[in-house]
Amino acid sequence: MVFGIITAIAACPAIVGTNEAVMQGQRQNMKERHRGLKTSLYVNCVTASRGGAEVNGGRVVLRDNILIVATSTKAYLEDCENDHPFAGYYLPYPERSWGRQGEGLVSTISDDPPQLNWIYVNIETHELKYGTRLDSEDHITGPWDCTKVDKRLTLEGWEGFIAVYVGPGEWQLFFDRNDDGLAGMFPEGTRTVEVELVRRERRNRRQDPEPLGPD
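Predicted structure:
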């Protein structure tokens, strides 16, 4: 009896270690699963303002190699035929590794044929853009990641995204890399709004064809 108790006590650390390893593996699998899910992007406003009210809840779409906020205004609706809603996920960027800091980010750019492009930030203009590897490789391609709880998009470890008014019903997305409100980049009086980019799981539909990989 005493020998059995001693054996059980000796085995406890091994059992606990095994359980911890299993739980850690499960957490890792869940993390990888959500990172590989194709998600949509929506805008939340950080501060209350007239511009914030206009873009809040708007969906991020791709148009002419830039990322814009799809507001519900008439001006936007009249010119939305060529816009493609962001539908993307994390993917390692070729020949670049940021370790645990994050990965690259891709989105479909068309449904027929299905095709992917890289999401990046122009290093000079700070615009959020999409394009081929050749388009993106000289710019900021990562590390993209997300917050632990709300799964909001981050770049280089923080949320520095700004929506800039560029015309009736149109707001373009930028990354405030220098944390200076994009000072000096736009004419005085240009309307800008700090925003959060929230990932939302897409509704399950019939299985789509696998998109072509990013160039």
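Summary: The chain has a mean pLDDT of 82.
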